[in-house]
Specification:
The structure is a homodimer of 369-residue chains. By secondary structure, chain A is of the alpha/beta class. The first copy, chain A, contains 14 helices and eleven strands. The longest helix of chain A is centred in the middle third of the chain and has 18 residues. The first copy, chain A, is globular and about 55 Å long. At the A-B interface, strand 10, strand 11 and helix 10 of A face strand 10, strand 11 and helix 10 of B.
Chain lengths: 369, 369
């Protein structure tokens, strides 16, 4: 019986984690649940799964719930470090995930990781801590899960090839994107996602962030990506003998979520195999019209707090775009500007990372009030 | 240093095995070489690789060679069982491969297997012997090598999905194939192969034989195939969670040959990775117009000496077709007729298998003299 703490249980990933627990009640128990919002759903989940700890991080106001609830940001770390927890599923959004991941690692927990910020902003901190503690970090993101699976073909690889759907504006020129509205940007062809991540997909920054994550998870800078509109191949790994290993399935988070929990076993999921009814196509990246991934690579090259700055600037800029305060193409210009004027800290501490994030987001919010 | 016996060293696979030895002279030595024909090339190979044993199986007449040469069919088993051999590469064509494989297994050698007949005609004998001796059988065929690689994704699989190029007559109706000439049938779109195997590709019997081989190698009857014209995905394995693992590379035998020798390591080969410049397409099998794979499955279902009979009948019929004695579509009719009138031996011995083969080939040769 694997005892789970699910951080962010009312979000899309958190809810699907609970579906896996429902599917395999003999294999998993829920020891802790936390949510930032969605108190009603959190209470319903608590009633169903009977965890020993329930936390509502987004409020300090007591809610009407049949079980005892802890309130405020501290609840996240408490859930992540409890003695009755084996695996911590980190499916919260934002920088709070980084602190929770580091706390869980120090407590010796296995990490099932769906929080982008942990690796993008604090990749070196997280990977160093995991190595020191001898803790496994199992990726839940579909691309990184695919890479992790493909690495079973062999230890030494030539390069990682992430796949990218290309987003809703694939094939368009930068000029034609100037007047894109938030409503157009959040329509993704293959995946049903939140607004922020949908815009990241439209700008291709999602692939940039994934390159940073993959660089940390797999200790390499040999990472390419290819546009693959069908989102059936979730990523690939090329080996020195010329072999490419590919992981395929219909576009669903069900498989990577379940595998991170059941690993090293695979169990039946709710997803059928791809039925080969359509061709799989590939296109070279177009970084002239979609320059975000190049910016992400540049932040990796600078190192230190630069990827954190990139992520903070992107997050703030996407927020401003969604509020109609800046145009679609301004997102890139803002991130580029932040990166070029950054005071680089080569070996940032956790506090340096958190400060970098707060300062950049704070300044952009003030600048575009 | 892995010491190789290469049975069939002057054929296409044998020559490529020697290319791998040339590429990694510090890892491999050649202890034994045999060839059925091609005495001049065999002598040149012997001069270059200095094996302790050289055999010419297709002749009992002494040839002019700088090193001592053994002659006749017995040379095959001697090469396969010598004390100074670790791995036996079985790249001979025909039923003699089965005897050599069984001898090598009993001598405790690792088998790198490119001989179809061993598994098609004698699959149960070979797999039982390998299990009893604790010997590994590493497939060299591109499809089976791909399946074997994909199985690293997980132990329990849902099904194997072989890929098939579809051959030169993909998309055509059976009626339109009646007057196909041998010259048309041996033109394969992706692979440069011998005449017999090219005709097997044109009739799709190659996929039928591969289904039988895979059934033995991977202990399953859950084997499908899909037409994949580009021959980039060399086969796939579907797992219970909905994941499909795929092995990709440009169409070359270089990778499966090298991997069978270097396993569990992968080393740089002469083959680049697939460059994603073209789409990958898939089509459902068309067994109405290409019914050979169904016949192969039927032989598996019957069991015993039936797959051997299928293979013998097919080999004889393809030979008759290549000599313009029968039409292209007669190949199927002959194999079907042989299978439907076969005296089934449920638990055949090696001698039963060899007799089944000889009787069927002999009879067909007499019938169509």
């Amino acid at each position: 019986m694997k005892r789970l703490a699910i951080l962010g249980s009312t979000g899309s990933i958190g809810r699907q984690v609970l579906d896996v627990v429902r599917r395999y009640p003999d294999r998993f128990s829920v020891a802790a649940l936390t949510a930032h919002t969605g108190a009603d759903l959190l209470c319903a989940q608590a009633a169903e799964f009977k965890p020993s700890f329930v936390g509502l991080t987004g409020s300090t106001q007591a809610i009407d719930c049949a079980v005892p609830v802890a309130y405020g940001a501290e609840a996240l770390e408490e859930a992540a470090t409890r003695d009755d927890v084996d695996t911590v599923v980190v499916s919260v959004v934002g920088m709070c995930g980084l602190k929770a991941v580091l706390a869980a690692i120090r407590a010796g927990k296995t990490i099932a990781l769906a929080n982008k910020e942990s690796l993008v902003a604090g990749g070196s901190l997280v990977m160093d801590a995991a190595k020191a503690a001898g803790v496994d970090i199992l990726p839940i993101d579909s691309e990184h899960s695919a890479v992790w699976q493909c690495l079973s073909f062999g230890k030494r690889f030539q390069k990682i090839i992430l796949t990218a759907s290309g987003g809703p504006f694939f094939g368009r020129t930068r000029d034609s994107l100037k007047n894109i509205t938030p409503e157009e940007a959040v329509k993704h062809p293959n995946w049903n996602m939140g607004a922020k991540i949908s815009v990241d997909s439209a700008t291709m920054m999602n692939k940039g962030l994934e390159i940073i994550e993959a660089a940390h998870l797999f200790h390499t800078d040999r990472i390419e990506y290819v546009i693959h509109r069908e989102s059936v191949i979730h990523s690939m790994v090329a080996f020195e003998d010329g072999t490419i290993a590919a992981q395929m399935s219909p576009p669903t988070m069900d498989i990577p979520i379940q595998l991170a929990l059941t690993y090293p076993e695979r169990l039946p999921s709710g997803t059928p195999t791809f039925d080969f009814s359509k061709p799989l196509t590939f296109h070279a990246p177009d970084e002239k019209n979609f320059p975000m991934p190049a910016l992400a690579r540049e932040s990796l090259r600078i190192g230190g707090n630069a990827p954190c700055a990139l992520n903070a600037a992107n997050e703030a800029a996407v927020g401003l775009f969604l509020k109609h305060k800046i145009g679609f193409c301004d997102i890139y210009e803002i991130v580029k500007g932040v990166l070029s004027t950054l005071s680089v800290i080569e070996k940032p501490t956790l506090q340096d990372i958190l400060n970098t994030y707060d300062e950049i987001v704070g300044k952009l919010m003030r600048d575009y009030r």
